[in-house]
Structure formats: structure tokens, C-alpha cells
């Protein structure tokens, strides 16, 4: 085994160790599942957790020299590490929630564990990508696993439907992504990010190829983060997929999309910024507004959160737009611009953390309450009286929803505060106002769920058991949501430092 | 050391009720009722006691230096942006703190009796404690952002408590209405705050808290160019929370909640948050004459508009609700004419007598087996003696009869309006004062005098309320009677202590705004005192006249009231009874079109088509999974998605090619 790896990666094994652990762990889990006959149900989940925590531990203890590895294919640094922590953390939570869900439903999916690890590997590669080919490799590794995760529940038609739709449309978007990459290759004469930068700085770069190519790549990434009009799959897939996977998709997959989107947008600045800025601004506004307005009318909580996740993608895109806004890209105001771009970029990173925490907390609860309660288990009216049945679950979901709504002192408020103040700093007051109006609208549909939980009479319920591990895990996430809302500074500063690393 | 220990009390004033809320909320029905009630009352009681301690400390300090601050942590800090998580107290919010915790405590005690038989007893007290926590955050917050945190918190509690009796459709609708209307207000508030941030941030030194009131006051020169816009935006927020035209519509409906909630939140404390906010930001408001004029006009208009509606309402709580809207109008009027201190004075006296009136009405409703229609009341004077006498004191207070509390504050407001040269606004306020006296006496007469018009069944149950309810009534009646004396004006030989107490907070504002009035006023001191006497006498006489007419018509000459109903074909009466049809107008203009857009266009077209497609498929799918998958592929759904995707890409690319 070792002899095979050494010539390939050689001295680079250090920086790549977390990636190797997750990859090898995925294979190991798969093999153990196939060959160890005496396996009890929970063993695979322990093994998966072990792999994920191992990778996290290595990330913490062994900080390698930052810089490109594998001949410039990947860029190891604080930015990649930041996202690796996020993905691995979400992986841990998803494993816990999924295992809890299996226990309750009596539905065991051993393939879940290796697929989860492989999709996380894809995300990690994506966040460290320093070459268009790595980007594609990362996106596909992530997506292929998620297609199966979303669709692979045996005998569940809606899940199959979700997986199939996601697969077909995902393939469709990958085609655009590849086409864009091909055009960019034509533009730069190479696929490395360094090649792109060099070509941009060169004499008379071919702007048409650049704009078209980057536009198509943007479409592919827009699909992953659910930007309107490439969002159509989101509600169906989020609703159909099992809730633990929906939570995973809404947080980790979306964060991975933004990880590469931010890199990519900054890479091509400022040449493409002027072409992109108006159209991206329009799409951002539409994404936020459509997401929130349609969420108002939903009666299924997962579908509601799907539309809400589209709206949140809109808020995050607001940060992206601010980064490339003419004010931020104006070369005469370099000092101010880097400050604005920096505050927008770090606000995006902070918001991703906030969004991940609150969404996971919500889906953790939805996961244990949802399925196994018949056809309408995820309808909002089934949450009536939850407070009386399980106050801790109700309180957790409340905190998560309040945070999603951006109500202080939850972390969601701070996230929006940083984002909107970056927008205001860039002088884009109308955009900030649209953002504020949107977040005010959103309070309405989040609060509706809370009203159901607290104000309505209890309903007869088939499911009264409690999966305590999931509730406690979600509860801890909710506490983090409050804590980071009150003490956001350390994280905010870290986000600033991390972001600065990729801008210089 | 001693000084430090007092300051740290500020955070405990705020946090202790939160503790009560957490325990009651999480343990809920596992907690025995007595324990839950005792816990809730104790936590607020402790907050009140601590507020008194802090107040005494302030009292012992020199007038100019009455300011204590308790910084818990830095909340936001990056670059030159820094916002503290902290509390501060000065004479202005010391008054608010005492009122909120004091009245809050009394109403907690009252609720023990009022809610005794309610299913959700523990939940109710959890919300009530949570409200006190939020309100104290609003009041004691050291900066505008903390104030906003509290602002949102009290809104949430108000919403939860309005729809407390959720089985009733009307309550749920009322909660929803309060919620939506307050969103509009919050929008103004938030944008105003953003504008302040964007204006100040580039000029701040490190360590200066961005939204800290101290900093804002320090940098009024920077804010001056945008003062009008900021003030108007903040005022939009205030019109939402403090129920002013045009956003007042939620408050009358909010009375659907339990009566103690109406008394605490929708009369005595939360609704005055808008007034407090404007008083807090007085240094900004005085820089904009336009904003001040708008505040004054809206206040006066609200005062007369709401009191005219109250003239004909038959629901006892509705009358009090419109009365509250109208009194809030007076407070705004005071702020608008630059008399912030008097506005706060009226906040305080109003808290006394309006809490008293609401709790009294609660006692009546309780006795009448939950009946709220005054047309079937009457003759309760002897059956509910304590309720009756305390209610009468409240009525005298709100009517402005000397020497009850309302006389001092309301008269002072009218005098300030007159002496600052706003004679028309004075006239409007004066007229509304007479109406107030009239409708309050009408309420008393219909409820307490004459014959009881209830069914025999209800009649047999009429009883005076338990001590937990009557004792708060008596205490509040005492306050409503003598609570105004601390503002006994100079011209009546008093010391106007209340005004002097608030003087340091508003002195900056007065110096700027009052300069002209003041210099002109010097020469006319003698004339002023004579005028003050005249106006005070006139408004006292006017109030008594209103009371007298109300008493006469509704006890002796009921026919007069009936003839008004028929006057001019009954049109004026119908318009008033239906509250000028404002709700209907809003409904037609905004709400229905909005819902239509959301429900039909957005939902049906964009989303429901998808749901239907899915469900129809799902029902038909008894066949194999593979077959179903193919079916979905063929039914056009996925094809439709891919098609819209392609359109999107095409537009995107076309745009890029032409703009590039």
C-alpha cells in the first residue's frame, strides 16, 4: 500500500493526509460492510465517525506548510482547512442523525456511510481546488455520491424520484460547467488557476472567450447553490430525500458550492466583474425574493426550508455581488476596495457557519419527527403541540427557526448583520434594503411553525418515542447558535484572516 | 467597590426574569401551579427591587453625572466597528425601568388570580417573564442595537400572548395582524439604523461603540445632514410599536389576548416603547424641525381620531384600546413639540391609570362570566365595590380631573403644545381630551350604573374578584391618584420635580430647539403664568364637562344616545362604529392583493403545479420504481426544469456576450 502511494504523492502526503484519511476511510467502510459478516448495525456508524473525527484531529494537530500541492492542482491553506472543518463537522452530525433515523424507521442503509465519506472527500477537494480539472473532479465526486444518497432509499418512490431528478439535472448542469471550462482552457491555454491569472494579466486577453467560459462555469456552480433560475430541482429533491440527507445537502453541499464560487469569482476579478455584476445582482435579488415569497405558501416543512434555502443562497450571493461590485473593484480605491471585499468575503464565510449550524439543528429535529409518521409526517400542522410532547425538541427547533429568520440574539442575526453591513459599506443601499425586506418577510413563515408547536392543541400522534442522541446533538447545535450570536467576534476575526489568505 | 456592585445590578435586573421564563418554559406542566406563579412573581419582584436600588444610587449622585453603565462583553468588534453587549441607566430609563418592573410586578400578581383556572398557566407566566426580560433589554440597552433586540423580543412576546387563547380564530388573526403591521414598523427602524451606521462608521475612532447612545449624542454634527431621513424612518418604527396613524390598526385587535396582557403589554409598557425610543434619540430629533412637526401632527391626529372611535364602541376592552391609542398620541404630541420629559411623564401616569382601567375591566369581565359587551352589563356598582371605586379613580385620572395623575401630565402636554406655538395642535388635543372624558364616563355608566342587563344565569355568578386581583387594583388606584404629584408644576406652587429629574437627559435638546421659544418667553413670564392658569382651568372644566355630559346621557337621557345613532341617517354613527372603515380599506388595498399574489400566482403557478404533479404521480405509483422514474421523466416535469434551465443559460450568455 505504502509503496504505491509514496511515488505518487511523496513528500506531499503531509498536507494531503486529511484527504487520504477520508478516502481510505470510505473504502474501508465499504469493505468492512461487505466482508465482515458479524457486523452489528451501529458498527459502521462508529467506524464512519472514527474516520471523520480522525480527519478533524489531523487537521487540528498537523498544520502543514500552506501552498500548492500535486503540481498546483490543489491549494492547501486556511481557506481549504476552514471548509474541511465545516464539511467534516456536518459529516459527523449527519452520521448521527442518519443512524438515529435508521434505528427508528427500521430501515438500514449500509451504503450511506461510504457514500457520505466520498461526497465529503469531493467537497474537500473542491474547496482546495486550484485547477479547473480539480474543480470538476471535486464537483462530480461530491455530486455522484449525493445523487445516490438522495435517491437510494429502497422502496421509497419520492426518494427515488428526488435522486433521479437531481441526477438528470445535475448531469445537465455539469455539461454547461464542462463547456465553460473548455472555453476557459481555450482562453488561457491551461486549466490551472495560475494559467488563468497569467492569461488575464497578459497582453490583450480574449475577453469574449473569458466572459462566455466563465459565465457557463458560473451556471454550473449556480446550480449547486440553487441560484434562480437554476434552482428548480431544489424543492423536489429536498422534499423527497430523507431528512438527514436534506440537511446535508442544504448545508455541506451548498457550502461547497459557495467555497468554489467565491474562489472562482475572485480569481477572475476585475476583468469579468463588470460584465457579471449587473446580471448577478439581478439574479441575487430574484433568488432572495422568489425563495421567500414561495416559502410563504408551503405546508410541508421540508419544502418550506427548501425555498428558504434558496432565499439564503440569495443572501450569500449578496455577499458575492458586493465583492465584485464596481466600488469594490475600483482600482483607484485599492485600499478601500480590499476592505469592502474583505468584509463581504468574511461575512460570507461567517454566514456559511451560521447557516450550517441553524439548518442542521432544524433538520436534526425534523429528521427524527418526520418520517415514520405516515404520508403527511412532514406537514407543518403535524408539529402542533410539539412543545407539550417534547419541549427540548421544540425549543431547539425554535432557536433554529428564529436564527434562520435573523432574529437577535441568534447567530443568524449576526450573519445577516455582517453581510448587510458589508453591502452598506460598499454603498449598495438599495440591495441592503431589499435584503432587509426579504428577511422581514421570511420571519412570517418561520414563525408559523413555532405557533404550531406552542399554540396549537396536541394532536394524537403515532410516534411518541424520542431519539435522544439526535435531540441532544441538535440541542447542542442550538446552543452554539445562541452562543455565536452573543459572542461572534472570534469567529468573525478568524473568517477575516481566512478570507484574506485567498485574496492575496 | 461599592459603586461597582451597583452597576453590575443592571444585568441582573434584565436577566432574572429570563431565568423565570426558562424554568417555567422548560418544566411547563411538570411545575405545580403555585410554584410557577410564585417563581414568576418573585423574579419580577426582584427586578423591581434591584431597580429601586439603582434608582436610589442615581438619586444620590449629582444631577449632571447620573449615569451608570454595565458592559457585559463586546458583542461585535471588527475594524472600527464595535458594539457592546451592555446596559446603561440614566434618569430617563430609570423611570422606565421602575414603571416596567413595578407595574409588571403588580400585573403578575393580578394574573395569579385572573389566570387561576387557565390550562396554560405555566406557559402564560413563562411568556410574561420573557416579556419583562425583553422589555428591560429594550429599556436598559446601552445602544440602539440592544434596544432593537429588546424591540424584537417584546414584539415576539406580544404576538405569542395575543394568540394565547389559540383555539379562537379571531385571536390567531389578531396576532397575525399585530405581527405584520409591526414588520412594517421594524423595517423603518432597521433602515434608519443602517443609515446611522453607514453615516457614522467611517468617522469613528477605535473603541467608540457604533450604536451607543453616548457615541450618537457625541457625533450629532455628523448625523445632522441626514437627521430628517433617519428620524422619519425611526418614527415609522415608533408608529408601528406605539400604534400611531397609520399603523395603529393592530392594537385594538390585540385586545383579544388575556386582559392582564392588555394591561401590561398593550397599555402600560410595550406600546410606549416607541415614545421611549424617540425620547432616547431626542438629540437627533431636535435637529430636524420637519421630523418633529411630523411627530407632533401624527400624535395629535391619532389622539383625536382614536378618541372619536372610542365614543361609540360597545366592547369594554375596545373602548380602552382606542383610548390607549389616543393617549399614545398625546405622548407623541409631547415629543413632537420638544417636550420629551412631559411625554415620558405621561408614559408613567398613563401606565398607572390605564393598567388600572384594564385590570378593572378584567375584573368586570371575570365577574360577568367573560362577557365584554357593555350593552349587557350595568348596575355592577354595588356588586363589585372595589372594582367600581378603583375604576372611577382611573376614570378621573384619564379625564384629567385635578388632582389625579392624568391632570398633571395631560395638562402639561397641552400647555407645552400651546407655549411652543402649536396652537392648532393644542386645539386638537383639547378637543380629544373632552371626548376622552365623555367616553370614559359612558363606559362607567354603562357598566356600573343603572340596571343589570345580563341573563339570570350570568347574574347569579357575579362576584367581586379575589384579593390577588383587588390588591393590585387598589395599589394602582393609589398611584393613579397621587402618582402625578411628582410633576406638580411651578405655577401651582409645586417643584416640577419630575421635569427636573429628566432635565440632564434632554438639556442638550432643549438648548438647540427651545432657544427661540425660550428667549422670547423670558419677557412674557408673567403673561405665561396667567395663560397657564387659564388653559389649565379650561381643560379641567372641559374634562369635568365631558364627564358630566357622559354621565347625564347614559344614566338619565338614554334617548339622546339613541337619537345620535339615527342622526343624519345614522351615517356618522356607523362610520365611527366601524372605525372609519380603515381595516376594510387596508384589506382591499394591500392584504387581499398580496395574498392573491402569493396564493395564486406564486404558489399555484410556480409551485403547486409541481406538488400536484408529484402527488398525482405518487398516487398512481403502485408500479415498480423504475417504471415510475420513467414516467416522471416523461410527464414533462424534469423536461420542464431542464428547459427552464436552458432558457436561463441562454439569457445569461446572451446578456454577457452583448455587454462584454
Description:
The complex is a heterodimer of chains A (504) and B (660). In chain A, α4 runs parallel beside α15. Chain A has a domain at 274-504. With 504 residues, chain A is mainly alpha-helical. Chain A has helices spanning 2-9, 13-35, 43-61, 78-105, 112-127, 132-151, 157-188, 193-201, 207-225, 233-240, 243-267, 273-296, 301-324, 326-329, 334-370, 386-389, 391-405, 411-425, 429-455, 468-486, 489-503; strands at 67-69, 74-76. Chain B has 660 residues and is mainly alpha-helical. Chain B has a domain at 581-659. Chain B contains 30 helices and 2 strands. Chain B has a two-stranded antiparallel sheet with strand order 1-2.
Oligomer class? heterodimer
Gyration radius of chain B, to the nearest Å? Answer: 27 Å
The strand line-up of the biggest sheet of chain B is: 1-2
**Rough shape of chain B?**
globular
Would you identify the regions of chain B where 5 or more consecutive residues have pLDDT less than 50? 509-524, 603-636
Span of the ends, CA to CA of chain A: 38 Å
Main features:
heterodimer, A: 504 residues, two-stranded antiparallel ribbon, 21 helices, 78% helix, 1% strand, globular, disordered N terminus, B: 660 residues, mainly alpha, two-stranded antiparallel sheet, 75% helix, 3% strand
